[in-house]
Design brief:
single chain, about 100 residues, mainly beta, four-stranded mixed β-sheet, three-stranded mixed β-sheet, about 40% strand
């Protein structure tokens, strides 16, 4: 199975309006140690140039690219990642792919 990276239009708008992301920017989705809880890891986003991208997407006509490096893709474990926006917050949803 192949992992997919999906970015909603609400997330794109949030990146542009709240984060000041502009056309041509590249955003790295990375894994970070957050400690405790059910999962000791969480996802973060930062502006960065890809070095060894394992997966990337340029949603719609947004002109921005989101990617995950080979060193971070393990976290998805063949699951799909959807990046959305709720209010002013970026939210991550990791799900097993459909049939």
């Amino acid at each position: 199975m192949m992992t997919s990276l999906n970015v909603t239009s609400a997330a794109v708008n949030c990146f542009k309006e709240e984060w000041g992301v502009r056309e041509g920017d590249q955003l790295r989705v990375f894994v970070r140690y957050s400690g405790g809880g059910d999962d000791a890891y969480s996802l973060g986003v930062t502006k960065s140039e890809p070095r060894y991208p394992a997966i990337s997407v340029t949603p719609g006509n947004a002109g921005i690219t989101l990617f995950m490096e080979e060193t971070d893709i393990w976290y998805l474990d063949n699951r799909d990642l959807t990046i959305d926006c709720q209010g002013q917050d970026i939210v991550f949803s990791v799900q097993s792919p459909g049939p």
